[in-house]
Known about the structure:
Layout: H1 2-27, E1 33-41, E2 52-57, E3 61-66, E4 70-77, E5 85-93, E6 99-107, E7 127-130, E8 137-144
Antiparallel strand pairs: 1-2, 1-8, 3-4, 4-5, 5-6, 7-8
Amino acid sequence: xxxxxxxVSLAILTLVGAGCxxxxxxxxxxxxxxxxxxxxxxxxxxxxxxxxxxxLEDTDAVQSLPYIYLELHAEYADGRSxxxxxxxxxxxxxxxxxxxxxxLYQMPEGEGPQNQFLGDHGFxxxxxxxxxxxxxxxxxxxxxx
Length: 145
């Protein structure tokens, strides 16, 4: 009886393990595009604007979203030429070069990134940047498609 129970348990574990392996493989698909979204407000006392977005296809690209006081920038490197796939996101004061904040997301060559944060905040989570002079606020996040 014990030997039969062991055999059944082993068969069940094998099936469960195979199922986990398949779903893990499905999760490792390379994103076809990355979308960085932003909501802006002139001051914390004002309501947020509608959400604006940048769409970076799976090819080298740089884009930006300018607002009155702050500007969101995103640069995607597909890694095909040098093996270094990454997304850099930074915020500057509008029309200025010096970043207030910068984030770098380095990604494996053939997979992801994985959207993991609740609230549709993608793989970066919800981030905030503030203009030190005007007090304007920029909320931003990036998702994989």
